[in-house]
Amino acid sequence: MKFTSILTGAALALGLAGAAMAQDKTKVGFVYVGPVGDGGWTYEHNQGRLAVEKEFGDAVETVFQENVPEGADAERVLTQMALSGADLIFTTSFGYMDPTVNVAAKFPNVKFEHATGYKRADNVSTYSARFYEGRAIQGHIAGKMTKSNVIGYIASFPIPEVIRGINSAYIHAKKVNPDVEFKIIWAYTWFDPAKEADAAKALIEQGADVILQHTDSTAPQAAAEQAGNVITFGQASDMGEYAPMPRVSSIIDNWAPYYLARTKAVMDGTWTSVDTWDGIGAGMVGIGEISDAVPADVKAEALAMKDAIAAGTYHPFTGPLKKQDGSDWLAEGEVADDGTLAGMGFYVEGIVGDIPQ
Amino acid sequence: MDLGSINPILLVASLMVAATPIILAAIGELVVEKAGVLNLGVEGMMITGAVCGFIVAVETDSPTLGFLCAALGGAVLSLLFGLLTQYLLSNQVATGLGLTLFGLGLSALLGQSYVGLKAPATPKLDIPVLSDIPVLGPVLFSHDLMVYLALALLAGVWAVLKYSRAGLILRAVGENHDAAHALGYKVVRIRLLAIMFGGACAGLGGAYVSLIRVPQWTEGMTAGAGWIALAIVVFASWKPGRVLLGAYLFGGITVLQLNLQAAGVAIPVEYLSMSPYLITIVVLVIMSADRSRAALNAPASLGRTFHASH
Questions:
Q1: Residue A155 in contact with residue A186, Cβ under 8 Å?
Q2: B258 in contact with A, Cβ within 8 Å
Q3: C-alpha distance from B215 to closest chain A C-alpha (Å)
């Protein structure tokens, strides 16, 4: 919110005299790509922010800015936030990567935390969640439940995180249903309900009876509900208002524990630049309740897979796996390493179509 | 590539849905321009209609009331434009652009606490028997009421402009406001009414997006549909029938590009995404290539300020 930042700017100007008092409070900033009411990605980040406020009470002050475009605008917002005295800033979208690193270089005393990126510095940490673990479970349920054998996928941007999700879902759908086919639409947006709804409709018209989305709004859920007999999964947030149909389960991002720990680290002066990538085991990725629309045996299998992933006994990218062009990737029993996963830029064998460049 | 997976019947059916907001906004703007006023604020009025409709529909749980208030909201906003341009004689182009920017901001402010909410469902008008006809059924007879209303409005505007005395007066005002004034017609009053009609139509179009097509509210959700509507009025050379053609062409390509993507056509996604706008531009170029004819169709007093000196 621009207004909030104006207010905080004004408050800062007024409060210069009381700088000693301001020192006591740890100021934590959040930059969001969508509105906090998107019901998905940004909503969950904001829940993390609220958890920080609740936990530390008067010891912290949080500020946030919604709907910040990825790119030059983000740099401006970050600079302003750093100037207004933030001690720790979370930038919660992939596209903020370069702006975060650029601004961090100018403010060595401010700590930055960038979500889902891979560029770090002394005062820039990165953190992400292993969403692909949740995608594996989605793929399993989708493969079991599809009757048309067509699964629609609304992808956002062609970045490793999204490609990983597509691959993971595809591998596990294919495993239980060899006839399954993925239709992928690249929406080129994280949040644009009109476009997401149109994409969902186009996929449904082409026979998809499962819609997976990597975009943040609930519009595809609404489109599926209208169409009937189409199942969806909540993305980033539970999207429970669409349960039990069309939403049969969800991937829930749980950022609160991480935000609490990192805020605490800044307060204690123990903050260091780290690279965190946690999954179901650590609780950063949650699986929303699997609704009754899913047959009991499928539900049990899905939960068993969840437990195996959480315990570390099963990795969603376990060989034998080939790349789309037919070349070998992982041998029998081999598990993908984090480096390959973090930079994944290829489809696995069986997916039709090209990744846009 | 699997073009066979595109179902042409469903494609045409969703084309009609995608074109409806543009038809509504364009037909309103056509009437405004026929009256000699160029209102570039269509986008602003649409988005204001979208948010007004959404808020009222959520609060009252009635999509019908939502649509009514969307029309009202659009009309009220357009009245602002009307007062500025007709009484204060401000520049129409600048005022219209200002109206768009104002509408976008105002709607974002109004909609702050409505982001992410669910709109009440608008029932589909499944006409028994008729909607079961193969091919024609799903294409023509299984939409929501607004699709038919938009078409009826279009036909109504065409009939009124062509056959009625009111239409003749409206056109007279648009062609030569001085002559119309000399004949005793209230130029400013007629134009204000036309502007409000345009605002109401744009508001309805916006509400169609927020209440039926998506249905959800988010900032800037009309995403340029208002500008497309403006372009389509020119494309249609101010003829209602061609508005329908233009809107279906644009809506059709919008839907088609998503379907092509899903079918895995090996055209880069970026080209597909820009294709609806590209084709609109191409068609505009073709239409305006013959300058004399294009100029002949435009209302002669379009965009000119009218001031009765005596």
A1: yes
A2: yes
A3: 7
| b/e code B81-98 from CB counts within 10 Å (16+ = b) | bbebbbeeebebeebbeb
Nearest CA in chain A to B225: A194
Nearest to A194 among B223, B255, B261 (CB): B223
Contact (Cβ atoms closer than 8 angstroms) between residue A25 and residue A87: no
Query: At A260, which amino acid appears?
Result: L
Nearest-CA distance from B209 to chain A in Å? Answer: 8
User: How many A-B residue pairs are in contact by the CB < 8 A criterion?
Assistant: 100
Integer Cα distance of B73 and B45 in angstroms: 8
Is 80 exceeded by the pLDDT of residue A264?
yes
pLDDT one-digit tens code per residue, A135-169:
999 999 999 999 999 999 999 999 999 999 999 99
| CA dist., res. B71 & res. A282, Å (int) | 51
- The single residue listed with the structure tokens 């026979």 is A207
Q: Do B262 and A219 touch (CB under 8 A)?
A: no
DSSP letter, residue A289:
P
Give the separation between CA A317 and CA A134, rounded to whole angstroms: 12
Q: Which of A103, A109, A104 is nearest to A87 (CA)?
A: A109
Spatial distance between the Cα atoms of A223 and B212, rounded to a whole number of angstroms: 10
Looking at the complex, report in whole angstroms how far the Cα of residue A86 sits from the nearest Cα belonging to chain B. Answer: 25
Read off the pTM.
0.82
Q: How many residues does chain B have?
A: 310
To which H or E segment does residue A232 belong? strand A231-234
The minimal CB distance from A185 to the residues B6, B213, B262 is found for: B262
Our CA-based measurement puts residue A273 at a distance from the nearest CA of chain B, in whole angstroms, of: 35
Q: What is the identity of the amino acid at A272?
A: T
- With an 8 Å Cβ cutoff, is A72 touching chain B? no
Sheet holding A247-253, edge to edge: A181-186, A150-155, A210-213, A231-234, A247-253, A285-288
A348-357: per-residue pLDDT in tens?
A: 999 988 888 7
ipTM, two decimals: 0.78
